[in-house]
Design goal:
- The protein is mainly alpha-helical and about 210 residues long.
- It has 8 helices and no strands.
Length: about 210
């Protein structure tokens, strides 16, 4: 863990985005998104400086990270999607493999493998596996792990159109994380997708 915030928030995504942000400034993005992201950046900085009055600046960093991350993630994401789509797709796929491999190692060999990255929750790895809730992988708890794989799977599909690999990544969120919340999200997404498909068919017939 880079900074022990005492909560789940960690600056990994922020630092990753900052590595690409110098290349992303020429990316065209709509004005409304620019205003919204810039406002979050400004608002987060104002809240941070208000929060550090009379206390250590390290504690409120968790709030600052939450407001800074969208700005430093969205622009690089647009840049990578538009100009380096293949690389971005491979990056998402490799990330998915990493999360799954760590989860398999935790199941088969060592429940505390790589849990040092979540510091305050690192001791929970063995407890989670023993309880039958699945594994944490690189997340602080199984539900977060499941949600992360769902997002990676959906992003991989949007970038590559490869439904089989994307579905496999998403299914890993169920069989490795064993999270009921992940199952609920997938059921809701499936229900919305089916309803939308039926609705579109109905509209086409009406028109």
């Amino acid at each position: 863990t880079i900074v022990d915030f005492g909560i789940y928030t960690q600056p990994y995504a922020l630092l990753m985005g900052m590595a690409f942000i110098p290349f992303a400034f020429n990316t065209r993005i709509d004005l409304a998104s620019c205003i919204a992201l810039s406002w979050l950046l400004f608002f987060g900085a104002i809240l941070y400086f208000q929060a550090i009055g009379g206390e250590s600046p390290a504690g409120p960093l968790k709030y600052l990270v939450a407001y800074l991350t969208p700005f430093f993630i969205v622009f690089p994401a647009f840049y990578l999607t538009r100009y380096h789509r293949t690389f971005f797709c491979k990056l998402v796929l490799w990330s998915s493999y990493l999360w799954v491999i760590v989860a398999v190692i935790q199941i088969a060999f060592d429940p505390s493998f790589m849990t040092i990255l979540v510091r305050s929750w690192s001791a929970a790895g063995e407890v989670v596996v023993a309880s039958g809730r699945g594994v944490m992988s690189l997340a602080p708890e199984p539900t977060t792990f499941g949600f992360h794989l769902i997002i990676l799977g959906a992003l991989h599909y949007l970038l590559s159109g490869n439904g089989r690999v994307s579905a496999l990544i998403i299914l890993c969120s169920l069989f490795l994380a064993l999270s009921s919340s992940s199952l609920l999200v997938l059921l809701m997404a499936g229900s919305i997708g089916v309803a939308g498909h039926i609705g579109l068919k109905f509209l086409r017939k009406m028109l």
